[in-house]
Amino acid sequence: MDQPMDIRAIMKHLPHRYPFLLVDRILELVVDQKVIALKNVTINEPFFQGHFPGAPIMPGVLIVEALAQAGGVLAIKSIPQCNEGTLMYFMGLDQVKFRKPVVPGDQLILEVQIVKKRGKVIKLSGTAKVDDQVVAEADLMATFEG
Predict the structure, then answer these.
(1) 0.85 cut: is pTM over it?
(2) CA–CA separation, 11 vs 16, rounded Å?
(3) What is the mean pLDDT of the chain?
(4) What superfamily in CATH does domain 7-144 come from?
(5) Domain ranges of the chain
């Protein structure tokens, strides 16, 4: 990838839209290897209204979803049968760990690597960081439509 992928380019690859699009920028993408993406966490996120009033924390499941979305862009770029807008579906999650809360003002750096590709199934390993500290990690397995 020559330059970062902005939100318009991401939206060409992922079907997600507000309020569920959780990747703001692709910083680095190496086809068949890895992606590094960015999510700016702001107080304007709709989930902060109820999670938790007075002590806003990004839900862990949404951090995992952000990892999956970053991995989805990588998969679409790395699997020849996929193209822009291909729908990807979770098949499994393993080794999910949450290390530290993510709060408004944080920049979430999402690093996802391809572990294995076979047919319509892809295995990914992801790490979410804030200020170079791991806040979450997960192994993901997904398949795609088509």
Answers:
(1) yes
(2) 7
(3) 95
(4) Hotdog Thioesterase (3.10.129.10)
(5) 7-144
